[in-house]
């Protein structure tokens, strides 16, 4: 508001001074010019009457002459004063209208309104810097789970699109440069309820500056950044950036895991998927044979590195190898859109194709040409723009990589269910048979949609009943928690995926493992199972029934009535 007041006073200073001066001269004339009363006796006009008359005279309302009829001299002065004050009012109003239409003033009003909305937030929120494709996907996923977000972007069109998006929660947005600390502060960086800053712009240097500012102005906050180069990643990690995501390395690593452990890849997709979407089908990338990589940029290099670690034979096609570099196996010059180029790379006997250029048109052309030459190819396609989704769905690729979706999904999981990211990391050290068995258990719980995934902290806020049992020394096991609070002989449709405390992390804890205060649990299953489990954890009587089978009365009246009946039955 300080900027708004400053702009108003700066622009309206001259009109206000002219207006005040004109009023003062008109009033002084009315006071100094001789007046007369009803009897014709000379009576001077006071300042109050002069001010009152000039006030409505300048607006040409015309209440009449007061306190008495004017003399001719007064009427001549009034005539000149009317024209002067009306002209000054038109000048002042015109200046005010020009000020209201000024872009600087409108921006100041918008920023002031934005600051007020951020200050009034009463729920934890995340500050998302960059509302491009990745930011759009992340904000939508957060609001779909009823989490609050604040967005900042330098492009006014993106900010306007955010206002038009049909989001479940209101998202305050500001069009500003996120590199400036003052803009980050206005967006709530130092707000006590700001839980994290997510830098998702398409410029590495901007993301780096955002991370630096966040760590300096709010050291305890979680900072998550997107980085497209290893140098920037190392720089961000050097000053404590919490999580750094490279979409190309992330996807290439997922493909390498899919080759080694397809069930683990399928399990990760199901647990991180959207509950209103259909279950993903398993993919089985070929683990032997030749792969052809078209494009040796950042994505192509990441795929080359991770696929070569699997011992696969690789051929690379690149149009400008003098800029991107040449792998040790050599390179085939070209874009890959021509059949002759693909044939030189050995597409005829290849088992896999990576269409990884930064042009969606080239990638679609590469896939269509390659499938004409070899229909049995396993195709990995890079999609750069969201509006081309329908084309990539029909081109025949088994896997489509969109950088914005990769980053948005990873960050959504990290912010929404942090233990799920921990589970994925620990599961990589298990055999694929372990993941296949877990996949079969998940399939038995759900139908055609991904399972509901949630986490619980065993504390007084989320599990007061279990904490009370723990203080009494009564053990509660994983198997007992999984019982239906309405019928303890039935098990709830859920799986305890991970139990974690300060000392250990346990995947798929056994049924007899004790759950204690301070534990964190990651679970999956049906949504109604999470509500039933929450009832058990919060209601001491329900937990008592689950453990012992005794259905104790819940309210004060019912407990008093139960004691009275017990005394009556015993004859006392």
From TrEMBL:
Subcellular location: Cell membrane
PANTHER family: POTASSIUM CHANNEL PROTEIN 2-RELATED-RELATED (PTHR43833)
Lineage of source species: Bacteria, Pseudomonadati, Pseudomonadota, Gammaproteobacteria, Chromatiales
Regions crossing the membrane: 16-35, 47-64, 76-100
Pfam families in the record: Ion_trans_2, TrkA_N
Signal peptide span: none
Organism of origin: Thiocapsa roseopersicina
Protein name: Trk K+ transport system, NAD-binding component
Classification via InterPro entries: K_chnl_dom (IPR013099), NAD(P)-bd_dom_sf (IPR036291), RCK_N (IPR003148), Trk_Ktr_HKT_K-transport (IPR050721)
